[in-house]
Amino acid sequence: MKATDEHTDRLRVAVVFPGDPTDPRVWSGTPAGLVGGLQGAGVEVVPVDVTPPRRLAALWTRAVAGQLRPSPDHLLTITRQGTPYARLVSATAALRVPRDADAVLQIGTGYRAFGRVRATFEDMTVVQGRRHAWGEIGALPERLVEGRRRLQQSVYRNADVCFLATSWAASSVAEDYGVPRERISVTGLGVNRPVPPAQDRDWSRPCLLFVGNAWERKNGPAVLEAFARLHARVPGAQLHLVGQGVPASASEFPGVTVHGALPMGDPEAQRRLAALFASATCLVVPSQLEPAGIVYAEAGAAGIPAIGSTVGGAADMIGPGGRVVDPKNVDALAAAMVELADPTTARTLGEQARQHAAGLTWEAVGGRIAARLREAVSGTEGAAG
Hints:
Layout: H1 3-9, E1 12-17, H2 30-40, E2 44-49, H3 54-65, H4 72-81, H5 83-96, E3 103-107, E4 118-122, H6 126-131, H7 135-139, H8 142-158, E5 161-164, H9 167-175, E6 184-186, E7 207-211, H10 220-233, E8 238-242, E9 256-260, H11 267-279, E10 282-284, H12 294-302, E11 306-309, H13 314-318, E12 322-325, H14 330-340, H15 343-357, H16 362-384
Parallel strand pairs: 1-2, 1-3, 3-4, 4-5, 5-6, 7-8, 7-10, 8-9, 10-11, 11-12
Helix pairs in contact: 1-16, 2-16, 3-4, 4-5, 10-14, 12-15
């Protein structure tokens, strides 16, 4: 066996993130999922937290702000989104990323991490976040957003591989940032909790499930309005609402039950959520914007179809096992609910969703990333030789 083959077989990858990459509570469990998936693919993973030391970060913020006690606005822009803080995170990465790693997988592009083979992983670009007024990106001053965009473009263009969760995000990297398609790879996302299909699901009565902690962004009010139309046609239909921020008043609607937040770290809450997936006939989360949506993969793993949004990457996660609708079109949402209220349609799409979700596990995602990184490492060694 050649030395190159031996080297790629024992691939050593530094997974870099501004936080603990092994903590399942961070970023919907995505970094931890990537770590586990790569390990399952036979990769030696070195988790690297590039969060700057707290004391150093405080001194840095004061120096850049020119104030002993920076205002909340300064803290928001400098310690989270500003270019100066990005430089501090990048410096931390330079100190902590092991130099003997075969490749570096940088989660997020708000900083720079260097290695022999460099790769990035994200589910949305700055351009997309600004375009759709996503979170803090939507509210930041233009100069800060432009700084983030330029940094992101530089990181993308200097990466050997840009991994994106969905084809929606991948299109932005190619079209908005000018990265060649051959350096872009769509990976999908994996599920974070076991949701086995129910063996005795009752498809005869529509039982819709909403799961989301951002009631307005997840389009909860539209779900209620559309469900009211379905319930008028099918009086036995049910809608279960799960998530932080779901208004208690929603339970006043006929057929609606509010469950509140069911945290991932609470075993009893997770048992309740698993029971809801087991009794549901359809997931409905037509978000105003959904970069990817692990919950769609969870629905597929549970064997039920999903109704998602046309805005974002939900279509990749749902695949053939459901429908995507314009989140602003309540008529289209209601029509999708009526269609999937049919027992035969729901059962058929549920089986298609289950088959599609088989490729949306962290093991499958890790395998795809590992294979592409092995190619990149092998190519780098071949060029060097």
